[in-house]
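Async update (no meeting this week)

Hi team, since we skipped the sync, here's where things stand on the single-chain job. The sequence we agreed to prioritize is pasted below, unchanged from the tracker. I ran it this morning and attached the output directly underneath so nobody has to dig for it. Comments welcome in thread, and please keep replies under the output.
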Amino acid sequence: MNVLQLYQALCERIPPSLSCEWDNDGLMCCPDPDREVRRVLVCLDATAAMVQKAIDERFDVILTHHPLVFHKLPALEPSDHVARKLIRLTRAGIAVMSFHTRLDALSGGVNDVLAARLGLMDAVPYGEEGIGRIGRLPKPTTLADFAETVKRALRVPCVVAADAGVPVYRVAVLGGNGSDDVRLTEAAGADTYVTGEIAHHHLTDAPERGMNLIAAGHFHTEDPVCAALAEMVRGIAPAAKTELADSNPIRVI
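Output:
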């Protein structure tokens, strides 16, 4: 299987039609569409460290959730950090494929994986875009106990929690930056909302809003989908060696 065939097969399973209008994802870098895919590196972000790993270990494809190219590049020259990575990847003949909001919305994608990790039952999409999920716990619990569940499930050292003084039972989730969905989750009937990042004013408003909020980290709420992506690639290209890598450069000190 070559690079283009792998991308087309992934698009059949993660359709571009699910992407938000503002998004930019897909085949980010493709020096050689006919290159045989022997090794695939799956990670959340195509950081400089991941690019170096792919070059050093002779990967053919880097498969990410976050787009390598999100904003328009004014030029392809090495003073820009994204352009610099593209130049290095092109010289090495390595392709990059990114599946962003379409993977968020996909059944079995980012937010279904997140909901399952947190033990939610009967999770369904909420809102017009249908990206986030809302479900219920087997039984109500306290915010303190649920925060510990989130930490264990996502392997994160700490979370930011705003307590509205209500039990945790009907929970909404959205991997990544979820500030824009606070009102949507409230309208959907959530008593608790778990996402990666939440703006300060939403956190301070939580007691007045009557909805618990938990910010568990952008990386940690989305990274679990990488394992699902890797399994998808293994099903499409079983002869290729597919490897997961931790691309997170952020540490809690």
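Quick observations from my side:
The chain has a mean pLDDT of 96.
Residues 81-92 form the longest helix (12 residues).
Reply here if anything looks off.
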